[in-house]
Amino acid sequence: MSAKPKVIFVLGGPGAGKGTQCAKLVDTYGFKHLSAGDLLREERGKAGSEFSELIEYHMTNGTIVPVAITCKLIEKAMQKSAADTFLIDGFPRNKDNLDGWLQEMADKTQLLFVLFFDCPNDTCIKRCLKRGAAGSGRTDDNLESLRKRFVTYQDTLSIIEYYKKQNLVITIDSNRSADEVFEDVKIAVENVKK
Ligand code: UP5
Ligand code: MG
């Protein structure tokens, strides 16, 4: 029987730098990056998807898509990849997500640790607004959606607490340049690999 796929959850506020740091981790360690948000945006864009409208509604309102949809997309993406370690970015974000993962995926995977990018809200907001102004095309890179995203983000803090109690959380200050942040990320990953 082959070993279970390994998982690293990557959490942090909207714009904390999850995607940016995951890209660097992919380049350095060859992990497979699965952004739950990207998977949902891809599903939303598929012609004929029965979930397009629901996903669009939740994204614009900064609320969370029901876990059955997100978890299935993650599972399918994992099955399509030959990688042995997956960065799951932006998931689980709330209790519904966590319950769904524990029920469907926890036994099929090995959770290595949780990377938590800690960043003040005002920095996160500036980054997302800058990205929106530069033409990201994201329907949630505007102040109204961002305010809602930060309200919803409060629920993610309780998920981080849940994993902290299991000593699985590595907290990284991401209010610095992306390269400085990554120096600490590398140290964290190397320590776990020892
Ligand atoms: N940037 C990054 N790092 C920087 C640094 N150190 N210094 C200066 N600039 C930096 O970065 C954001 C921007 O900041 C970029 O322009 C970057 O260049 C710059 P990024 O790396 O993209 O940050 P990230 O944390 O990934 O921000 P993102 O906006 O993707 O975070 P969200 O968590 O809000 O977005 P996500 O795509 O995960 O989710 C979007 C929505 O999808 C949610 O609100 C929700 O409605 C839905 N969703 C679900 O329902 N369920 C899920 O499981 C996941 C998402
Ligand atoms: Mg992202």
UniProtKB/TrEMBL annotation:
A ribonucleoside 5'-phosphate binds at R41, T63, I64, V65, G90, F91, P92, R93, R138, R149. Pfam families: ADK. Binds 1 Mg(2+) ion per monomer. ATP binds at G15, A16, G17, K18, G19, T20, R131, R176. CDD domains: ADK. Its cofactor is Mg(2+). It is found in: Cytoplasm; Nucleus. This is UMP-CMP kinase. Residues 35-65 are annotated as: NMPbind. HAMAP family: Adenylate_kinase_Adk, Adenylate_kinase_UMP_CMP_kin. Transmembrane segments: none annotated. Catalyzes the phosphorylation of pyrimidine nucleoside monophosphates at the expense of ATP. Plays an important role in de novo pyrimidine nucleotide biosynthesis. Has preference for UMP and CMP as phosphate acceptors. PANTHER family: NUCLEOTIDE KINASE. InterPro entries: Adenylat/UMP-CMP_kin (IPR000850), Adenylat_kinase_CS (IPR033690), P-loop_NTPase (IPR027417), UMP_CMP_kinase (IPR006266). CMP binds at N97. Monomer. It catalyses: UMP + ATP = UDP + ADP; CMP + ATP = CDP + ADP; dCMP + ATP = dCDP + ADP. GO terms for cellular component: cytoplasm; nucleus. It comes from the Eukaryota. Belongs to the adenylate kinase family. UMP-CMP kinase subfamily. GO terms for biological process: 'de novo' pyrimidine nucleobase biosynthetic process; pyrimidine nucleotide biosynthetic process. It is an enzyme of class 2 (transferase). It comes from Parthenolecanium corni. Its main location: cytoplasm. The lineage of its organism: Eukaryota, Metazoa, Ecdysozoa, Arthropoda, Hexapoda. Consists of three domains, a large central CORE domain and two small peripheral domains, NMPbind and LID, which undergo movements during catalysis. The LID domain closes over the site of phosphoryl transfer upon ATP binding. Assembling and dissambling the active center during each catalytic cycle provides an effective means to prevent ATP hydrolysis.
